[in-house]
Design brief:
This protein is of the alpha+beta class. It contains four helices and three strands. α1 crosses α2 (about 20-25). It starts with a strand and ends with a helix.
């Protein structure tokens, strides 16, 4: 297994973005991540690659899913997101 693990500050430095943007995205369920212990957010090298893919803007893909008639879905990551949706 060749996974590397990064704390939010390390991942943000690697991705050249703000730590807050990564934390907010993970807490909102937009970004894949792992939670260890009492909610400590950790990103793997695979998570970082997926976040880069999710944040990519391709030519001609500027339309929102709602505008094109596609159904929108909620991606839930972790128990807190599921509990928040259920309440």
């Amino acid at each position: 297994m060749n996974l590397e693990f990064f704390e939010p500050a390390e991942a943000a430095a690697l991705m050249r973005c703000s730590e807050g943007w990564l934390r907010d995205g993970a807490a909102a369920g937009r970004f894949p991540h792992a939670c260890w212990g009492k909610g400590k957010i950790v990103f793997t090298s695979e998570h970082i690659a997926e976040i880069a893919r999710l944040s990519e803007i391709l030519p001609g893909a500027h339309r929102s899913p709602a505008a094109s008639g596609a159904a929108t879905s909620t991606r839930l990551i972790g128990n807190r997101a599921r509990n928040r949706l259920a309440s």
